[in-house]
Write a structure and sequence with these properties.
The chain has five helices and no strands. The protein is mainly alpha-helical. It folds into two domains: about 70 residues; about 60 residues, no CATH class. The model has no long low-confidence stretch (mean pLDDT about 80).
Length: about 150
């Protein structure tokens, strides 16, 4: 009978040890699960924020691609033919500035190239021969000096 009691004690100790180890493993699994769930919640939050940002950026791109004012028809500029009139040149330069601003251009070189496309007759000849190669700001300054 002593042997049987000793055997039962050994089995009981083994069962306690296994139960303790099982409890430790269960806690580790629960902690890992909780950590995984927390990471999933964080990822969902990040994904929602990214979606919101993408939506906002799409709106900005749509808004900027239309020059800041959606669905506005821009009046086509009249050509400048080289008429030597302060009023005519002044109106042309003013209209050109507005046109270039509406197009969203900021680079002076690009502005000048676009503006040159609206020269005709004598003005185009002067441009092609290199007689007028002034940036838009310089032309405006000269014009204001003529008034």
């Amino acid at each position: 009978m002593r042997e049987e009691l000793k055997e039962l004690r050994t089995q009981h100790e083994y069962t306690d040890l296994m139960s303790t180890q099982l409890e430790v493993r269960v806690k580790e699994v629960e902690e890992a699960r909780d950590q995984g769930l927390a990471e999933i919640v964080g990822l969902r939050k990040s994904l929602d924020e990214a979606r919101d940002e993408i939506t906002m950026l799409k709106k900005v791109v749509r808004h900027n691609s239309s020059g800041g004012v959606p669905h506005v028809k821009v009046k086509e500029l009249e050509f400048y033919d080289g008429t030597r009139s302060t009023k005519t040149l002044g109106n042309f330069l003013w209209d050109m500035e507005q046109y270039l601003e509406r197009l969203g251009l900021s680079d002076d070189e690009t502005k000048v190239k676009v503006a040159a496309q609206f020269l005709t007759k004598d003005a185009k000849m002067w441009w092609r021969r290199g007689w007028i190669r002034l940036p838009m700001a310089v032309l405006m300054t000269l014009l204001h000096g003529m008034r």
